[in-house]
Sequence to fold (230 residues):
Amino acid sequence: MVTKVAAIPDAGPGHRPDTGASQRLGRASPDERREHILSVASEIFAREGYGVSSMSSIAARLGGSKATLYKYFASKEELFHAVMQRKCEAVIGPLEQLAGSSPDPATLLREFGKIFLTRLCQPDAIVIHRTVHAEAERFPEVARTFFSYGPEAAYAVLTPALARFHAEGVIDCPDPRLAAEQFLAMVRGDLHLRVSSGLIPPPDEAEIERQVSHAVGIFVRGIARQGPPA
Fold:
């Protein structure tokens, strides 16, 4: 877990860089500096959007120079890529472990679905989702980055697990990639749309369990291996 660093005041008219923050950043190790940059950039992208935010505003918030920021990230697009990768890796790691150790399809899908939906409905994930939809038309690279590190990464984990169960004769799933897409779409359902639209608050554990269990029940029956005709 990344240690939170004390908030640094926003830049504004007549703003002077926070020399204390700059000194703290200067004493940090390269990895610590990079993590701090990603934390600050994540906040600014969420608050200002991708289009309005700039390397200058991020450097000002950090209390350092743009030269220091460019030492770690060559462009705003590269920085956004790193922010998305960092956020998604925190979710994909547990999913990868689960996919390799689940004893049966129902267990895999139930636990996978709960982790996926819980993360998808957390406030910071909702902010990312809204940012992507707001910026995608003007900045298609934002949508591509989001899809690569978000949905595509989840499909890439679930697909081989379903393929393995199919190869073992446990399920009838000749197109595991399509099955992975359709299962996660069922898990998201209308719930995620309502949360991301601000119509309802993020679901509690019981609601996530209900949503995922219902999707798993339908899906597992659909991919069940059928016996030979009588």
Notes: Residues 88-223 form a domain with the Tetracycline Repressor; domain 2 fold (CATH 1.10.357.10).
